[in-house]
Amino acid sequence: MKFIKINNSDNVAVTLNDIEKGEVLNVEGIDVLIKNNIPAGHKFALTNISANSNVVKYGYPIGHARENIEQGDWINEKTIKTNLEGLLEYEYNPHEVSIDIPQQNLSFMGYKRSNGDVGIRNEIWLIPTVGCVNGTINSLAEKLRNETQNKGVDAIVAYPHNYGCSQLGEDHENTRKILRNMVLHPNVGGVLIVGLGCENNQVNSFRELLGEVDESRIKFMETQKVDDEDEMGMKLLREIYGVVSKDERISVPISELKIGLKCGGSDGFSGITANPLLGVFSDFLIAQGGSTILTEVPEMFGAETILMNRCVNKNIFDKTVLLINDFKNYFEQNNQPIYENPSPGNKAGGISTLEEKSLGCTQKCGKSLVKDVLLYGERLINKGLNLLSAPGNDLVAATALASSGCQMVLFTTGRGTPFGCFVPTMKISTNSLLFNKKPGWIDFNAGTILENETIEQVNERFVDYIIQVASGQLVNNEKKNYREIAIFKTGVTL
Fold it and tell me: Which CATH fold would you assign to the domain 123-248?
């Protein structure tokens, strides 16, 4: 098989392999003469498409032809233009959602926290209130790792960042919220919070933001107030380690899982293999009583009405409209084009317009009802499918997903990336070539959906793998200790 036509109403097909000019492909009984050399993952016209007429993929317009396109032509960003423009008004037209997925009573081995939350890791984290003490936390983390050899804990990690001072208004509050949510995250058994003393994000006010905490697991150090921050830091860390290292995994129902859905380095197969796989998994997990969260708001543009019409009620619809239009206003306030997407890597992979990218991206959340919409820095409250306000940037979005309470982020990619945020960041490849080329990056291959497996068969293996990872099996970013955070910034730095 050399191509795939995704929807009956499509006027394009997607190549599964490189196709040479002059080759003839039989599409539903019609011979199509290929007019150009076309890379794998890219589109070719199934019929003549006149200038300004819609190009249709996934059953929806993904833009319009810039000029006349002939049957067999290669369709890319040079021949197609987005239909999207400016702010829109939306109407709530709820669609019935019927998903019949049986309960399977699955469980994983996790860590039950005193507040009822469940973690899939038991780590010790060092979190700075301000970037000035990044060197201090890095040094302390290395000393504790050397001293303990990580025995009894899953990892000991410092999370440096650039913020906590010289920020105003919303930026300052966003920093505080993300750091608060990290401290309270169920994947961490104990935290040492390290401050300088003169920063905006004062240790005492940050302590108040946290509320009541277990003081045997969460400790504070203000370096300007101690004689030797290395000596005091190690004393506090040894106390934390003494408590955390005694924690043990117990059997927990899969309904306790909260999973973030993310994609990056997309290609022409993203909306055919890996993203639909996440959609099938998302529906499955939600049917078991679990939760998934979709973000990357700019990559909902062009497919937002699909999500809006799946909102559980008018209130959630209104919150979704605000989610979309607030992000469009953010672009306009900064004098930037709203639809400056896809990226060069996306285009090289076969994605030509933002609609095409969005229609592929939103498949990650399946067909379930949207139960809630979270602002940036908010934590998940309502189980089921949630939408989260955050940009498309990989590390910023993954950090936001983890901050909202996700114990794991599932990251689909057609081009590959090694990064990880502060929770396990599982990479799912859209094609087998990438999976075989980058075994140190990619954790699971969805490319077999185009080869010898149905999406249902792949999902069975995928669910098993998710449970193994939730029970302690490391993914590649953890094995390599690629763990970072990135906090969304919109305003002035002093």
Answer: Ribose 5-phosphate Isomerase B; Chain: A, (3.40.1400)
